[in-house]
Write a structure and sequence with these properties.
Blueprint lengths: L1 E7 L2 H8 L1 H18 L6 E6 L2 E6 L2 H17 L9 E7 L3 E3 L2 E3 L1 H12 L5 E4 H6 L2 H4 L2 E7 L8 E6 L27 E6 L2 E5 L5 E5 L6 E2 L10 E6 L2 E6 L5 E5 L4 E4 L3 E3 L4 E5 L11 E6 L7
Parallel strand pairs: 4-7, 12-13
Antiparallel strand pairs: 1-3, 1-4, 2-3, 5-6, 7-9, 8-9, 10-11, 10-20, 12-14, 14-15, 15-18, 16-17, 16-19, 19-20
Length: about 300
């Protein structure tokens, strides 16, 4: 079975630009376009996750043809007259089926590919490429190397060239030099405070920290701002965004403590977070963070 994920690029900005009501209508319109196209490729919509659609197909050729048709459709007929761009990922392999849903590493890899694909791109794995007919192999090109979750060897990621003409296509050095590895799926982020354990991943991409009761993690300390900071997933990385008065202190494992004030910092590895108080002040409210070694894209 081949799993496809299709997602609207910049959906957060879309909601901010046109408003919730119009953005919802745009989402529904493009999902209607997807649903109408799927039967022609023996595909079905499994579910939607926000503005992302998850579909399945009996083989790789049908999935690639469907993905290309969806891209062409939203380009030629913008939903609600509003131009959008999609980024897509698909992967063929074994899945576990429960009722109408599907699970497993094949699903996780397809979701990862959608996350790293650029606007208007369709990304596929080398194993999926190997299953394609000669005609479809001819309209792909290798663009990245990465180590996929659950694997130890490097895999090549291919781009499907779905447009009939590609005059604006960026030239690639892939075949003539060793390109850097694309960041892999290092897992989600775990945040622990008191009895709370929060998982940040592909499905929950943002949490808030602060004194306000509306925050996901509430810190009862007057040195913590009401809306002190957020932790957010951006691409494949997690960042802490400080928006406070007294700053945020981060003690990374095996590294010196740093302070962050009105800026962002990458949360790589593990460590501890203190809102408003340095660790030398022996803060009573400490948030621990570490990587969840399971896939970030558990769906």
């Amino acid at each position: 079975m081949t799993v496809l994920f299709a997602d609207i690029t910049g959906s957060t900005e879309l909601f901010g630009t046109v408003g919730d009501s119009v953005a919802r209508r745009i989402e529904r319109a493009w999902l209607d376009q997807v649903t109408a196209l799927l039967p022609g490729f023996a595909g079905r919509l499994v579910k939607t996750i926000g503005d992302e659609a998850m579909c399945v197909f009996p083989d790789a050729d049908q999935a690639v043809l469907a993905a290309s048709a969806i891209q062409a459709s939203v380009t030629a007929n913008p939903p609600q007259g509003h131009s959008i761009e999609l980024h897509m990922g698909l992967h063929a392999g074994d899945v576990m089926v429960e009722k109408h849903d599907v699970f497993g590493n094949t699903v996780n890899i397809a979701a990862y590919l959608a996350a790293v694909a650029l606007p208007q791109q369709i990304a596929i794995t080398d194993s999926t490429y190997a299953m394609l007919s000669a005609a479809l192999k001819a309209v792909t090109r290798p663009i990245f190397r990465t180590v996929l979750k659950g694997q130890t060897i490097t895999s090549t990621i291919y781009q499907v060239l779905w447009k009939k003409e590609n005059p604006d296509l960026t030239d690639s050095f892939f075949s003539v030099r060793q390109t850097p590895l694309l960041p892999g799926d290092n897992g989600g982020l775990l945040l622990k405070y008191a009895d709370q354990l929060i998982h940040l991943n592909h499905q929950q991409t943002r949490i808030s920290l602060g004194r306000a009761v509306s925050c996901d993690i509430v810190i009862d300390d007057r040195y913590a701002s009401r809306e002190h900071a957020t932790v957010e997933l951006d691409g494949m990385n997690f960042y802490l965004l400080d928006r406070s008065i007294n700053g945020t202190y981060i003690a990374f494992d095996h590294r010196p403590e740093i302070s962050v004030l009105r800026r962002d910092v990458l949360l790589d590895g593990g460590g501890k977070i203190s809102l408003g108080r340095a660790f030398q002040e022996d803060p009573k409210h400490v948030i621990e963070f570490s990587y969840d070694r399971r896939s970030m894209f558990r769906v």
